[in-house]
Specification:
2 copies of one chain form a homodimer. By secondary structure, the first copy, chain A, is an alpha+beta fold. Chain A has helices spanning about 20-30, 60-70, 85-95, 100-105, 110-120, 135-145, 165-175, 235-250, 285-290, 295-300, 335-340, 370-380, and strands at about 10-15, 35-40, 50-55, 75, 125-130, 145-150, 160-165, 185-190, 195-205, 205-210, 215-220, 220-230, 255-265, 270-275, 315-320, 325-330, 345, 350-355, 360-365.
Chain lengths: ~375, ~375
Amino acid sequence: MKNPLSSDFTIGFLGAGQLARMSAVQAFRYGMQVAVFSDRPEDEPVQFMTPHSYSGSFDDVDSMMEFAKSCDVITLENEFIDSEVLRELRDRSGTPIFPSPESFALIENKRIEKQTFEEAGIPVTPYALIRDQEGLKTFGETHGWPYLLKSSKGGYDGYGNETVQNREEALAAFEKLGGNIGHDILAEAFVDFTHELAVQVARNETGHVVYPCCETVQKNHICVAVKTPAPVPSDVREKAQQLALKATEAIDGKGIFAYEFFLTTGGDVLLNESAPRPHNSGHYSIEGCTTSQFENHIRAVCGLPPGNPSLIKPAAVMINLLGTHKRAAVIENAEEAIAEPGGHLHSYGKLQSKPGRKMAHYTLLGEQLEATYNKAIRLTKQIEI
Amino acid sequence: MKNPLSSDFTIGFLGAGQLARMSAVQAFRYGMQVAVFSDRPEDEPVQFMTPHSYSGSFDDVDSMMEFAKSCDVITLENEFIDSEVLRELRDRSGTPIFPSPESFALIENKRIEKQTFEEAGIPVTPYALIRDQEGLKTFGETHGWPYLLKSSKGGYDGYGNETVQNREEALAAFEKLGGNIGHDILAEAFVDFTHELAVQVARNETGHVVYPCCETVQKNHICVAVKTPAPVPSDVREKAQQLALKATEAIDGKGIFAYEFFLTTGGDVLLNESAPRPHNSGHYSIEGCTTSQFENHIRAVCGLPPGNPSLIKPAAVMINLLGTHKRAAVIENAEEAIAEPGGHLHSYGKLQSKPGRKMAHYTLLGEQLEATYNKAIRLTKQIEI
């Protein structure tokens, strides 16, 4: 690969949302050019950031070839493109893709992902592939009701997940998720947990770094806040960090990766989900860490040494600012949050808001975690978007 | 002005170089759209960052009108556009320009600038407007040889400045700078100084913040490094900060402003130059301060409250990485600098390098200023561009 610090070096993003946008900002910082391919023709966050914008279908290698050939390296902001498509795109265009299609192949399907990590000795939540009505019943009898049904591919922020209380609900959800038409459906036992944790890892051929273990605060399966470091014993945080690194090694990951864990009531750390990309749980790192997850995303896929992920203050809190109205996007009542020393607002440049849509986030650094969290909540609660 | 946190809010930059580029990155962070107008048709740093790119002449209001009308607010990265042109552009397009044309009018000409600041009670270096051969002689006899001759407009990084040792050199320089064809030429006495200092101020109708006082290390009139806080007594730093704020108030500045001072051998702080824009002396603030000069540039011109300018570590050092070769730009031998914890590389995306051209910079944060400076020098000295 060409020296990524050549000024005509172009990094391409498959996907044009906020994760790519925040990564692209870091690419600019290194003097790079940014190209973007989206499945929407216009008005996506990254499309406003470059003259090099392409669109088409993520399923169609042909439609991505012109984009791919214009790039020196390609990366992704989601995990919904088939690894076979990525492999063909890479091989036909000659442009490297990181994380690699081979890494993607090990995690793109939730069943294969669980197997990959189990084989590496990483504890995962109890699960089974469900093929039919009998399987739905057996899983409930073995692991108890309620449990979760998930599409093996394409789940995101709770979409593609169904909680089922009994056999009737299980059957309805199985059909809703497409189990009856051949989609792989996974059952997952509910785990009694005290905290949901997350860890990011940046890794490439030059080395790796592991971010602090944070707590993700979820409402309705959507992350609403992140507290770093997670308010759990330090040995639990270290355990999650070790597992996150092990998981990244298991898929020979080159890039930035995020792992979500349950800390069970019994004190176990179980891997829940992985993401081969920057992750909402790591947004705090933009100001909170010496090197952000986005900068390390760029560094890792370009072969530059990953940078120090240490916290620069004892506490970092990130609040997701979700849309509150269906309207043209505008952030209102944010003056106090912006004026707060140590407070940082990031808006994603989405033109349209709607209730629950991830529109922006707010990071507050401080000396003490709960006080910082409470202040961040207070400063952001009146914000409307 | 429209709420700047509307996602279709467009900030326009007159000028497309590294100062606009680093400011534009911050505009993206607030979800804004970026438009740029350059006097070069392509390949300027900001032109790679937006689909909204315009070019033409900075002297021709007509050629800037389409750009201006596409923006909600316009700002600048240099001080070379005539304030009358800016005023006409603003009045005809209806788009606000900050810093305002009225502020520009008070500083665009070095003679008027000196008068403005003198009238505000700010000590400046001894100077005189030179009209003829007699004036050249009188200035030398009054203030001693050598002294400096400067174009009243358009000087930058030592260009447009001439050091003259005697009457013959003075006359040659006067003609070289265009004094004989009516250009305003200023003579400035050499000041015996121990340090060159700089301070940034962000100011708008909501308030102001003053950055720490830093030392600029110059070679051949080009800034090669910046040390923050300046290694001078704290009362000297405070004096420079007070004068910088006073100067910003004197021109009713809205935006980010930088001021360069001499600390004389006698202990006086004299204002040397001002810049109504982000400044090389403030690049350290990207990682060194809670809120960078570029973020406060965006905040100030958009009417958002300026953010906390405090240092986040006791010492911040910035090294300018100048071109070392005439070639397509590529940064080589930077691995060690990038891998250093607390070290941050920024490249400006210029396609062509040449010896002495400002291509990139490197910031290193640390606990102790001289040790940090020495380490930064060591880490960057082998870099070639």
